[in-house]
Structure formats: C-alpha cells, structure tokens
Amino acid sequence: MTRLPHCLPGTRSLSSMLALLLSGSLQFRLLGLYKLEVVRAVQTSKFQILIPQSLSKPGKGYDHRDALFGIPPYGGSIQQQVFYADTDLCDANNINAKGGYPQRSDGSAWQTPFILLVDRGGCSFVVKVRNAQRAGAAGVLIADDLCLCDRPDCKPETDEVCETREPLMADDGSGADVSIPSFLLFREDADQIKQALMNNQHVRAQMSFKVPAPGARVEYQLWTAPSDFVSRSLEQTFGLAAAALGDRASFQPHPYIYDGISAGCQTETGEDECFNLCLNDGRYCTIDPDDDMQSGSSGADVVREALRRLCIWQTYGTDGIGQKWWDYVTAFIDGCQAEGAEEVEGEPVQLNFNDPECVSFAMVVAQVDENVINDCMEKSGELGETSNVTNTLLEQEIKDQKAAGVVLIPSLVVNGAIVHGSLSFSTVLKAVCSGFSPGSEPAVCLKCADCNNELDCVEFGSCRSGPTGLIDSVVSGDVPLEIFVGVLFGFAALFGCVLCIQSRRQQRMMRDQVRGIVADYMPVSSQNTRTGDTSLALAQDEDDGDDHGNNGYDNGGATTNSSFSIT
C-alpha cells in the first residue's frame, strides 16, 4: 500500500527540491504535512468478545481498525481463544509460546489456532503480525499504547500524551507474506481485555469479515494509480472474474490522482510548485513512478495515462465489465516496460508512461479505437504543463475519492465499504462474492470462492485443485456422471491389478525364503525310506524349473518329486 503524498509549499527552486530528493524521495518526504479529511467508510469487519460475557459489547462490537495488509477471510469469521503475549514480538527468535496469559499450570504452549494480543511498539505492525503468524496465530490484536485525544474515555496519565490523529495499521512494504488478519484495538478497550487475561480468565473472541450485502447485484471499485505496482497482478488477472460475474456485478476503475491545489502545488498566482509531478499548472498531480525527477517517466506522464484510462472505461465500460479496459491495462503492463528495465524478484518492473508508440500498440492489442480515446481526452479539457484550466473527468475523480474516503492505494470498495488487506485475486473475489445477499450468489461464486486456486477455477470453469476438486466438478455438472464413474472404476481396476501382482510376488518370496531356511537347518534325505511319517511338503510352482528346464530337483541325474521333509 502507498500513502498518498502531498507537495511541500514554498519549495520554489529545483535545487531545493533535488536536495530533498537526494535525502530520500521528494514525494514520500511530503507525507503527513497536510491533514487528510478522512470520511469514515462502511465497516467491513467486526470484533466481539464471546467469553466472558462481561466483556461482550452487543451490537457492533468493539471499535477497531483493520490492518492494510494480510488476507481477511471475507464471508467468514475466526472464533478462537485469546492469549496475551508477554513480549513485544519484535524478535522472531525470542517468542515464548509457553509464556504470556492466561498462565497454564502444565506449562503448555499456545494451543493453535489462537488469536494473539500483543502490545504496540518496538517494531512495525507487519513484523509483529508476521511473527505471530509463525507462532501459529490465526489472527492478531494490537493493543494501542496511547489513547485517542478526541475519545471521551481517553484519560492519559500525568506523564503521558494522547494521540491527536487516528492511527493506521499500514504495510511497511514487506507485508506480502502475511496471510492472517489483524486489528488495532484502542487502548481503553485493550486494557480491559488484557486485565482479564492477566487474571487468568479464559477469553474467546470473534473476528468476522463481510461487506454489506443489500441484494443480488454487487458494485465494486478499484482505486489505484497507473504507476502502482501492488495492484498490477490484480489488473492483469481479474478481468476473467469480471467477465464471469457478468451483469450480476458492476465494476468501476478509478485512477487515483491528487488535488494539487489542496496539496499546495499551485500558488495563488497559478504557478506550479511541484516540478514535473503535475499538469495544468499544479492542478492534477501524482507521484513520480521511478523516483527520478530528472529522467524517465514523470508524475505528469502518469496523470496523462490516468486520463487515458478514464476515457477507455467511459467508452467501453458501460456494461460494468469493460473487457477492453482490462485488456488494454494488461497489454500496457506487459509491453510498456521502461528501457533497460530488468525483472528482479521482489522488485517492480518500471513502466514507460511517455512512449506514444507503446500506448498505440497496447490499444491495438486490446482492440481500442485510439482516435475515439484521443477525442475523449481532448473534450474533457485541455491537459498540459502550463494549462491552468480544469479537466472535467479529473475533477470528477477528485470529488469521488473524497466522497469515498480513500486515502491509500490500492483500495477496493465493495458496496460502499472499503476492503482491507492484501488485494490478491483470492481476496477480491471473496470480498465481491460476500457482497451478494444469501441465495443470490452467481455461479462463479458458488464454484470458485472457496476453491484452493480461485484464479484457476475462474479460468477453467471448475474447481480442479484440492482433494475434492473432481467431486465438486461432478456436483456442479461440469463433469458428466458417466465419465466420473468410468474414471473411478478405472482407478479401482488398476489398483486391484497392482495389488494382485504385489501379493503374488510376496508369496513367492516367502516360499523361497522358507526353502532356504529348511535347506540350511534341516536334514535332507535323498530318499524317503519312511512310510506314514508326517512331512512338510513345499510344492513346486509350475514355472519353478531349474536351469535345465526340469520341474523337479536333480537326484543323481533322475527326475524326482521329492520334497523337503521335517522329521
């Protein structure tokens, strides 16, 4: 996730901007210099204490904030016992799973799965949650160490301070491997839960996740910037799901730009103070895609690409699916890489946003009419570095982002609720499918939302992964019953043949071993001179001949039917 930047007022000269750039990227040094007017979005998660009842809060449960990383199980919940860690979980090698609260008389470790409560501080949220995940936690609760100043129950001690701004559980850039959900609890609430655990009370909690489900149709929007690499994988794959959802869902992409005037990128006299991050004299801005303001693509180039994608959607997305929009974005990501860009594991490939030929090629691949798109861009308003005029499409995007309360990208909004966590194909499909009212889910949700490999399921029309993949396909009608029965009998016959062959081999080996034992330890008579005695006879197999083709043992050149005897 990327916190959206704000430009620094008063930075008039290129030299002063470069000084900031050299000390650590201009746009990210601008964080927090302007207060964001955050609109509280619809809550998509709920936290409740089930046991003890005295800690339960009927109705909406505990006020909390979702982490912006991890994979919440949308449409499901986690109900587990809560343990309170007695360490800060910052050191993966110093986690005492047998410690913490409630204390166990037998010295046992935290019994997995469990929900782990840990104090805030000492390291990033991601580090704490990752270490809890490695210890076996199914979910994590971070107890804030400061109270929020504007909360009525915030009463800091004499030597303490309170938080003036609501904290965000943001990703530190390394949270891609975190797969469990986590919440931040306000100090006043966390203190009560910690006290119960330290009194050795058993606490059981529920973390549940669901987007509003008003009916049989879902509306979802993706807020991202053309330069954002976190959402690239989703943009390259989710077009398949959008097509499979059909008219049961309506998609709307929003290329994120920020209001340069509010951010201070335009002076009172209309001059651009944010160098090449903006167009129209500082009105419309975004971050530099390669953190190099002297070469390569610029923020202004990304703004122009954002407008282009808006026009593509406006032209081809009226059906709520916009297959050509998905095709264009995929072709652009695949084919418009910056010159000399190399794919390094864990690092994003830089894209070239100022190559008209590449844009034209991506439109050809997606079968998009370039003339129509250029005409749309021109009609929306002039766009240039020194054109201090408004652009209707970009102005509307700025209004929509403020109304939605989007302050981080990428963000997914389903039925008006912001979906938190890692925006993988799996997370987004589950979130969209949980937005349908019960009984109204489309076929793709019934088949694929709970499949081990959702993308594979959507692509091929059935859940082929996991131990129940074939059975699921039969139940859903994707595989005819006759074929399933035939395959089942075929496997049974093959298994029977292998078992029979193996059994015969083992019997033969056992006979040979017994013969060897008898030959070594029992007297062998060349002639059977006793009559009526009891013997142990090991009959020869019909195919057990000697090297000369004889079916019996050679006794002085004569073929006999004698056997080993025990006397």
Strand and helix layout:
Layout: E1 2-3, H1 14-22, H2 26-29, E2 45-51, E3 64-66, E4 77-84, E5 114-119, H3 125-134, E6 137-143, E7 182-185, H4 187-198, E8 203-209, E9 218-224, H5 232-237, H6 239-245, E10 249-255, E11 258-259, E12 278-279, E13 284-285, H7 299-316, H8 323-335, H9 356-366, H10 370-379, H11 392-404, E14 408-409, E15 411-414, E16 417-419, H12 425-433, H13 443-448, H14 454-460, H15 469-476, H16 481-521, E17 554-555, E18 558-559
Parallel strand pairs: 4-5, 5-6, 6-7, 9-10
Antiparallel strand pairs: 1-14, 2-8, 3-7, 4-8, 9-15, 11-13, 12-13, 15-16, 17-18
Helix pairs in contact: 7-8, 7-10, 8-9
**Rg over alpha carbons:** 35 Å
Largest sheet, strands/sense/barrel: 7 strands, mixed
> How large a portion of the residues is in β-strands, by DSSP E?
5-15%
Strand order of the largest sheet: 2-8-4-5-6-7-3
**Which stretches are poorly predicted, pLDDT < 50 over at least 5 residues?**
1-40, 467-474, 524-567
Total number of strands: 18
The total count of helices amounts to: 16
What overall geometry do the principal axes of the alpha carbons give? globular
Mean pLDDT: 80
Termini gap: 87 Å
* Helical fraction: 25-40%
Secondary structure class reads: alpha+beta
